[in-house]
Amino acid sequence: MCGIVGILGKSSVANNLVDALRRLEYRGYDSAGVATVEDGTLDRRRAEGKLRNLEKRLLAEPLAGRTGIGHTRWATHGRPIERNAHPHMTAKVSVVHNGIIENFRDLRAKLEAKGHRFETDTDTEAVVHLITDELDQSNDPVAAAHKALNQLQGAFALGIIFAGHDDLMIAARKGSPLAIGHGSGEMYLGSDAIALAPFTDAITYLEEGDWAVLHRSGADIYDRDGARIERPMIKAVASSLLVDKGNYRHFMAKEIHEQPEVISHTLANYLDMAAARVNFPDLGVDLANISRVTISACGTAYYAGLVAKYWIERFARLPVDIDVASEMRYRETPLPENGLAIFVSQSGETADTLATLRYCKANRQHVASIVNVRTSTIARESHAVLPTLAGPEIGVASTKAFTCQLSVLACLAIAIGRARGEIAPEQETALVTALTEVPRHVAAILRNEDIYLPVAQDLAKARDVLYLGRGSSFPIALEGALKLKEISYIHAEGYAAGELKHGPIALIDESVPVIVVAPEDELFEKTVSNLQEVAARGGQIILISDAPPEKAGCKLAAHIPMPVVDAFIAPLLYAVPIQLIAYQTAVQIGTDVDQPRNLAKSVTVE
Ligand code: M6R
């Protein structure tokens, strides 16, 4: 997790860059750095560790310049040492970056073959040399940056300055947030508006795929197709400088769209991306000698745990017992020697989950919790804490917390499988590589949001909706039904697709939409058979799948196309369409999306 800032100022900017970075330190503090343009030349100061080390460095070696960028780092590629600290630069360009450049290895190989010398282990340095390479050919910084941006894959936010250009900064957003601040004859850039609060409250949020050319007089913004576009300037009020909705109508929409970034941060915490290995913290228990995993949680967090059951049993060949916390706490279930008990909770305060944790602890289980609030009671009472780095989740309907919980659980499944000798190094590489690609795929799914509108318009008229899925898609079907009912108040049920004929098929007629979560995996053909059963009874099928619609073998009311990916990561991706379907349906109906009736964000009673 990293924070980036930029200032086109009237006087020396180094100190203001550090002020802004201080407000972003929650995003990472492995190292920090600033770079400026002074007399046409780029220069920088960097320091390992917390921001105060950079401040000391700047006191000892001040940095002049009215144009600058800054960075506080959460290491993903390359150890947290000064050499890997941002800003990265050549004589021509300097870059700060938040996110992951997925194709950095390919880019680096090509650029090294052309004679570029790399000095760091980071993915970011490939961006610096790519832009330098374009500048070698055209010497037009805007054109060079644009050409380079078009070659980058991954989810990222970038701030770029150039030697010889004192009144120019380029910003780009693809999957990681970025805000532009408007001053009087000054312009600012920040990972969020909080960073810019000391300087300005006039904020423009870049949208997915946008890139911008900043001068002191203002910003020209372009969309992902290169068309000049206007984005609104809003006044950020003091309270909203803590947590605001940005350009979104609801927190839920904002949180859905934050997923590429927060998944990326969460994965970076548990993976060594450069080595394509899981880098799991010590849980205080020997993962090779666990006899059984017990998972407990409530609501959406329970469904994350249910996906993990499929992953852990499949990849680690270890039995997993799972139950909703409100049942497990009274079930008096016998618990094994050497058992690992895992609790999943966004808030970390859910009463039933906490009570079950205490039961498991009293019964000699080693307790690990996956929480979004690190200071929560569940975190404090656990032997080990595995944080999700989703950031504050305000919408009552859990979205980004869910996919971050899945991200941690996916890494845990690989870690247990490796410890037990069930996952060979090549398989680990393949699984980790697939996980690394999740933020990019999620960003791509979110770019296709318009296709959900007609589906939502139809669903808004329904009285009952069924969701079907098999294997690890079954919990996603359950989560889809929960999401829809909690914010749209439409009755919805999730079923294992094979269970359809054991009862629920009686509900199906022309008025019942059936949403089918069906990646084209080894179970796809079985699900297709269930589709035929629904179609034969007139059900309106909405198929979410990477398989082309013809493969359904029946008439579909709608087909939501998905990227073709390793089946392992499918739950992380298919979670997104079911969130968008629920959200857009609720918007059609006009419910209070962020605070639906009868619900609370943190359920501290049983
Ligand atoms: O804070 P927790 O994750 O422990 O909360 C558990 C459930 O209350 C929560 O997931 C709830 O189901 C959500 N509103 C679902 O969107």
Describe what this molecule looks like in 3D.
The protein is an alpha/beta fold and 606 residues long. The protein folds into 3 domains: 3-247, Aminohydrolase, N-terminal nucleophile (Ntn) domain (Glutamine Phosphoribosylpyrophosphate, subunit 1, domain 1, 4-Layer Sandwich); 254-436, Rossmann fold (3-Layer(aba) Sandwich), CATH 3.40.50.10490; 445-589, Glucose-6-phosphate isomerase like protein, domain 1 (Rossmann fold, 3-Layer(aba) Sandwich). It has an 8-stranded antiparallel beta sheet with strand order 3-2-4-1-10-9-11-15. Strands 5-6-7-8-12-13-14 form a 7-stranded antiparallel beta sheet. It has a 5-stranded parallel beta sheet with strand order 19-18-20-21-22, sandwiched between helices. Helix 9 packs parallel to helix 13 (400-419). The radius of gyration is 25 Å and the shape is globular. It binds 5-amino-5-deoxy-1-O-phosphono-D-mannitol. 5-amino-5-deoxy-1-O-phosphono-D-mannitol binds next to helix 9 and helix 17. Residues 298-301, 345-347, 350, 353, 396-398, 482, 486, 602-603 line the site of 5-amino-5-deoxy-1-O-phosphono-D-mannitol.
Brief summary:
This protein has 606 residues and is α/β, with parallel strands linked by helices. The chain has three domains: 3-247, Aminohydrolase, N-terminal nucleophile (Ntn) domain (Glutamine Phosphoribosylpyrophosphate, subunit 1, domain 1, 4-Layer Sandwich); 254-436, Rossmann fold, CATH 3.40.50.10490; 445-589, 3-Layer(aba) Sandwich (Rossmann fold), CATH 3.40.50.10490.
